[in-house]
Amino acid sequence: MTGLTAEVIVDGRELRTPVLARNGRLLGYVVAPLSRVGDHLDTQVWFVDIDDGGASRRATADTATESRPRWSADSRVLFFLSDRTDRATPQLYRFAVADATVTALTTWRAGIIDHLPLADPGLVALLAEDEPTEEDDRRARDRDDAIVAGEREPHARLRLLDLHTGSVTTPDVFGDRHVVDLRQRPDGGPLAVLTQASADSDHGPRSGRLHLFDHVTATVEDLGPVAADARSLAWWPAEDGWHLGYLALTPPALHAGTAVFDLALGSRVLRTRTADLSMCPTELCQTDAAALVVFADGLNTTVARLGPTDLTILSKHPGRLSDLTTTGTGGTIAALTGSRYRPVDVHVGPPAGPLRKITDTRPELSGLTLGTQEPLAYRATDGLALDGLLVLPVGRTGSEGPFPLITIVHGGPYDRYADRCQLFWFPSAQWLAAAGYAVFLPNPRGGQGHGHQFAASVAGRVGQEEWTDIQTGIDLLISQDIADPHRLGIAGWSHGGFMSAWAVGHTDRFRAALVGAGVVDWGMLAATGENGQFEAALGGSTGWSGVGPHRHDAVSPVSFASHIRTPVLILHGAEDTNVPLGQAVYLHRALRHFDVEHEFVIYPREGHSIRERNHQLDVLRRTRAWFDRWLRP
């Protein structure tokens, strides 16, 4: 008896956005519940004195959604966002460490989206939409709220808060462009600002431009366009002057192949620094001297320093490491990481390691027995090196097989399974291992961790080689007497849901399948999903590509619905804008038409991820009951 229940999984807490002060002593972070009860997710800002070895302390006592902690340049004040006064409208607050007082700094009617304390102790840069006008108020009163595409679209604008007077000014820069990120030069100089043509997630990421903004003179310099989905700005000095870096998709890819871009401001020469590596950059972190880069490296994570001409590996970490933060000098880092059997906590130490754990977020899991987790390494049918994870049933060893095997495909596809604790609200390995299942977590081509070409190889070819990669891993586990070939299941969420739907249209070897928020028609997704052009790159075409058949028809699971004989559980959020509900309805109608056993569940008020507590509990219980019904007669 493991003691693992659905309530234990969803009633936990998680840590978000750790941030180190420049003095290296203080660290702030956000504590958030894993599930939501009610209309709001109530989160909390905490901080800890690392050098003092003291316990973490909560910065506030209010019930609110609190986020985005940022330290002042002198490490005396922790700024953060909170909606304690008006729920769902966050404002900027200041927590003074010396006397533990909290002060509201803004009353911006549209709310504050993000903020950046500047080197000047009297200034904070803000990102916020325009406040409602009298005309907007009249429209709201009169319900004159027809939405016209392109009109009155919200844009986040750069604004400056004067802490001495409390006034907020909006420099007349960037026109109507949407500001998405900003970073000040380490010496207190200008701000690098990343903008997009709009906030629309389909068009915006392909329209990025980079700017230099001098907050003293209120002047701006346009540095030109950036590659798609640019983010994670960082400055560093070099012999030829200042450099400005960012992460973005490597052209012409629109879905994968993230690289570090390095712009030398003196010469305006732009180059990619990581495109030929066998690992994938996920974060870029600024210090006073050189940028640090976090890489997805197979099942694990690598931290490196970006030099003027080279890349120096500093440390390697098991599993996933994320949300890297550092002191000004870069001598101390903090990040979120865990282990195979322990969830994520904040770890602190030198960039070269080792890192020590300074939080204990989920002590309730310490007494649980989990299934043994093992890394897998094997080769695809064409010889490509692949990896993944195997989680055995709790209390069992591989020699006691064969076991009923459930394969869970990750989302993305530009994501990966890292060698970390696999315990989540969505179909996860340890939840199923506790019920006696072996679980295979494959990393087929198209994901992170193995370089650009590995990631980009599925463009226009989803469901092809990546499906063969998954089958090869299943066959390996069958040959090792770990998996029972007569009791196989497959599951996944998002792109993993697509692969599950694809699988049952191409083989009858699975006795049950789960399609969570899955893609069944790539043309429809390109037309209606919030990331249309990215999905079009994966599917290979759109409905307006001319008279069909189209390339996306050949890689859409609905095209093969007449072949499906496997019982399918369909789970989907009613308000999903990433993969709209229509995808699930399409699969449901196709399965009903062909008289295929299936169950279709819609979760009201939910988006692409399921957030409400009762819905998360239902996902976990329904998933296990579904596989128990078909794999454990």
From TrEMBL:
Residues 429-631 form the Peptidase S9 prolyl oligopeptidase catalytic domain. One of its GO terms (biological process) is proteolysis. InterPro entries: 6-blade_b-propeller_TolB-like (IPR011042), AB_hydrolase_fold (IPR029058), Peptidase_S9_cat (IPR001375), WD40 (IPR011659). Keywords: Aminopeptidase, Hydrolase, Protease, Serine protease. The keyword Ribonucleoprotein does not apply. It comes from the Bacteria. GO terms for molecular function: aminopeptidase activity; serine-type endopeptidase activity. Pfam families: PD40 (PF07676), Peptidase_S9 (PF00326). This is Dipeptidyl aminopeptidase/acylaminoacyl peptidase.
